[in-house]
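Known limitations

Files may contain more than one protein. Parsers should not assume a single record per file. Below, a two-record file is shown to illustrate correct handling: read the sequence, read the token line, then continue until end of file.
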Amino acid sequence: MTIPTLMQNHQKKVYVTQLHKVYNVLQQGFIQEMTDRNAVNLTEAGLTGTDSIRAFFRKYFKVIQDCDKGVVEPCFASDYRNIEGSSVTEVNGNDWHGGACAVLADGNSICLDSPTFTSATLEDGRTVSMGNVFVDTNGAKEPNIIGRDAFIFAVFSDGVLDTAHADVACRIEGNCNGGSIKDARLIGNDCEKSVKVLDHVCFGKILNDNWQMNY
């Protein structure tokens, strides 16, 4: 392989390593919150509003800055783009629907919305109960591209992190709208063209490919 290709592959591994780390820490935090409160899901654990999400962040992570206005500077970049270079306007400046955002000591910036895990209608017409998570694995530093250093995915009320279409019925009962869970993770816009909050396809591709960035 040429040196540029080697460098690109190395950088992709760095992106995935950073993502995998925050994924693990977040999911462990959600599970621990339910355990500590003897709750069967995150709603029963009390993760139902901005204040409770802020308390959750501070309980399990070292927060160095709260981001009261959502995906904005200095916690995040002012403009997030997709891999093709178009601005992802649905993320930029998003107040995250009454949730909370923070910068963590490890360099991650993170937002959690829909704190009551309200219903969302997906592209295939199904309605699921989930909250969106937005993570920039190196904060406001470049490249600020969805699918490289920034990712959108879902947290379900059982504390599992996955794509929006990999809901409980799909994951546990196999009811994935006629396909497999791998198929469900790829529903929506192409990863390279992702422009919407519900486009979790880049994250889905990484999960499907066993934590490899093959795009």
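...continuing to the second record:
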Amino acid sequence: MERYIWLGALGFVVGSYGTLIGAGGGFVLVPVLLLLYPHENPQIITSISLAVVFFNALSGSWAYARMKRVDFKSGLLFAVATIPGAILGALSTASISRRLFDAVFGVLMIAASVFLLLYSSEEKETKESKQRFRLTRKIVGKDGTQYTFSYNPIFGAGLSVVVGYVSSFLGIGGGIIHVPVLAHLLNFPVHIATATSHFVLAIMALTGTTVHILTGSFTHGIRRTTALAIGVLIGAQVGALLSHRVKGSWIFRALAIALAFVGVRILLMAL
């Protein structure tokens, strides 16, 4: 019983931090699960993580929707694009050894950290573009803040397919990839990127979890998933509230620091 209480507390931390930075928390949860259960195969680890990410993203999306920060039109486009990638990613997990999984996970986390550290300090201006295939969005938050930005939806959908595959394959949910993509490559304001990313994560993580259930790889771990899910449902609400007080640049710095720590730790495990 005590073990499940600790897992619930872990879920709360994962939910709070993951929702604050729009990453879903999987990038924190997976390495912790790898450390707690060193003999579990990657399928079990990723299936538990994806299920927990779904509940985290669902709770966070609800909180962000009340703040009117979610770009539902763009989110639906990206979510649909992630589905084929998420299915392939979940199926691919069965073909990789635990040691190789740890190595790939560690390298990608470090690479993502370097990317964020390089770009988190840059001031990004929102520029209007007259290029073809541009979609302009205007979002007005609950506090009256207006966000206007434009992006190429075809490019965004293509990137989402890749995000869906990588995130489902690693069981991390994809927010650590999708938030930088939305903010730096698709011109989304940071706070809209984190909120919209959560909406996309909910659909993508549900897809990956469904694949694991249908293929029978999610054979055990229900109790662990339940304890973690209870924690993230509560933590996600806290993280969304805290996002009001955190500047966009600090969101990226916090994410980069966490990724670097996690990446180095997991990479050392694989060596």
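Parsers that stop after the first record will miss the second one. For reference, the second record is described as follows. The radius of gyration is 17 Å.
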